[in-house]
Design brief:
Blueprint lengths: L20 H5 L6 E5 L14 H10 L3 E6 L5 H10 L7 E6 H11 L3 H4 L10
Parallel strand pairs: 1-2, 2-3
InterPro entries: HAD-like_sf, HAD-SF_hydro_IIA, HAD_sf
GO cellular component, one term: chloroplast
GO molecular function, one term: phosphatase activity
């Protein structure tokens, strides 16, 4: 005899689907937001509809936002790009890029692996 597996109807779903950043922000469930810029906030040429107003609303609730960028640019150039697209950089706690992290590690050399590199290394992107 095969046993049947069933889930009681009172069990909440494990996953919830949202139709965009704005709908998720309206839940006010999160105090910290780590947001990718490209494909989440804008398409490279213009902000997605509602993206700027959603971030402004999040800021008024006290939410902390960090922009995560997987590209070869430094944080300062990416902040300027966001500003040029209409985003207010003061809404973000910071911007993190892989190049920025590499630059900081190479400059500080506080990590044993980076310290062992000496002064002869090259960062290619």
């Amino acid at each position: 005899m095969m046993r049947k597996c069933s889930v009681a109807p009172s069990v909440e779903p494990m996953f919830q689907t949202f139709n965009g950043l704005q709908q998720l922000a309206e839940t006010r469930r999160f105090k910290a937001w780590f947001l990718d810029q490209f494909g989440v906030l804008h398409d490279g040429k213009q902000p997605y509809p509602g993206a700027i107003s959603t971030l402004e609303k999040l800021a008024t609730t006290g939410a902390k936002m960090v922009i995560i960028i997987n590209s070869s640019g430094r944080a300062s150039t990416k902040i300027e790009k966001l500003k040029n697209l209409g985003f207010d950089p003061s809404l973000f706690m910071g911007v993190v890029t892989n190049r920025e992290l590499t630059h900081q590690y190479l400059q500080r050399r506080g990590n044993a692996w980076f310290a062992a590199l000496g002064r002869s290394c090259i960062h290619m992107t």
